[in-house]
Amino acid sequence: MFHALFRISREEGILALYSGIAPALLRQASYGTIKIGIYQSLKRLFVNRLEDETLLINVICGVISGVISSALANPTDVLKIRMQAQGSLFQGGMIGSFIDIYQQEGTRGLWRGVVPTAQRAAIVVGVELPVYDITKKHLILSGLMGDTILTHFISSFTCGLAGAVASNPVDVVRTRLMNQRAIVGSVELYRGTIDGLLKTWKSEGFFALYKGFWPNWLRLGPWNIIFFITYEQLKRLPF
Asked: Solcar repeats span which residues (predicted)?
């Protein structure tokens, strides 16, 4: 991982490490907002009190919110991955790139890989949010800790690790699917998520499904910590 960071910085410059930052920010603004909004709204349909929450209810709400939010935000994910994969070779701005993908590949191009993306989101959100809520619930109700920033930190750290472990195999296949361009006459290597998982495992071994695990966790871990601590503090604002 560190070798890749140094090599990219040396060969393409520091800014290459931030390829795809614009669609990534747009994706988080849309995907993250829709995800947490749907999740909390669905939970309120089942329970009103923290102590009444169960793992099953939280998982169901997480899976549904993950699928819906990721499907809506898929075009930004496609552009982000292509910008990161092509680096300095990628030409044009974000809006122009959306238009270019649409003109060359149609609507299908913008939603390329939406099934594995939704599957990944179902796994990530279906693991992360329930793990966060259940960890926080038990820390508070057990009397070990109060509803404090430290509790939020421990809960978010735990959910980030759980999400990375659960989602990495689908993440590997999803990235490969999105990088397959719809070129007339070409044969796509992977036909879907299951096909991609099986072919990757067969040709490269089981641990190939966990390629990029450490950078994945180093991304999910800090992101979850910052997100949940900020979210919990915003919930306390008087409005």
From this structure: 1-45, 53-138, 147-237
